[in-house]
Amino acid sequence: MESTNKVIEAILTKTIKENRREWFQRLPEALWAYRTTWRNTTRFSPYELVFGKNVVFPVEFEIKTLRISLAVNLDLTDAQTTKLQQFQELDEKRLDDIHQTTMIQQQRTRWHDKTIK
């Protein structure tokens, strides 16, 4: 636990050099970086060990990069269309997963009602 805290403190120290009072705003990013970083000892990230799959980065981190790109005045037409397509694919996957979960729950309910009285 102490070694984890040291690593998180080092990440925060590197990212908040100028304004130390706002460390709590950077804490979620520091925790995400720590949890998704690949380790030599286990050959996995802590995220992969807990959830059993690769990391999917949350939207809020992507938006921050988009805001920075807009601040630098980069042309984002291709990037925006690609991102919108990714969002659409993600929504379709989520809807499919919701449908699949509902079907499985209905099957389990029918089985439970049929076998257990």
Q: What does this molecule look like?
A:
The chain is 74% helix and 0% strand. By secondary structure, the chain is mainly α. The protein has 2 domains: 1-56; 57-117, no CATH class. Helix 1 packs across helix 2. The chain is flat, with a radius of gyration of 21 Å. The termini are far apart. The mean pLDDT is 77.
List keywords for this structure.
single chain, 117 residues, mainly alpha, 5 helices
Low-confidence stretches: none
Summarize the biggest pleated sheet: none
Distance between the termini: 48 Å
Tell me the overall shape: flat
The string of secondary-structure elements, in order, is: HHHHH
Query: In percent, how helical is the residue content?
Result: over 70%
Rg, rounded, reads 21 Å
Individual helix count: 5
Q: How many beta-strand segments?
A: 0
The pLDDT mean sits at 77
Count of spatially separate domains: 2
